[in-house]
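Hello again, I could really use a second opinion on something today. I've been staring at a protein lately and its backbone has me curious. Please have a think about how the structure follows from the sequence. I owe you a coffee for this, so here goes:
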Amino acid sequence: MNFIFYFCVFMAVFYVPFDLFVKPMATDDEIWFGIVLSGPWAKATEPLHWFIYGAGAYGFWKMKSWMWPWAAVYAAQVVIAMFVWNLVNTGGRGWQAGAGAAVFFAVPMVALWRAKPHFRGKITEQS
């Protein structure tokens, strides 16, 4: 969760503002569920990514209860996106690469799903 927290901070503070305010619209891309949005559609959806990463950074920092299940749900979207992107994008490497990437990103998804006690502020010991 620490890595995901720092990733959210980086994305919310540096990358998404750069994408939104500096990167030219002609070269801008956003990916949702594996589908690449370009140009004006990318610019239109960047504030949603900014909100998600900002909320994620705050939620992980304070271990807010609303982060469960939403962190795992967003991670599930990433798993789907990794598989779909490799299937439909010309730069993708096919279903095998998509399946491998999906499995790789499923590990933090499952960990976030199982982390419910951490987001309640009560960490229970397992015997």
The longest strand covers residues 29-32.
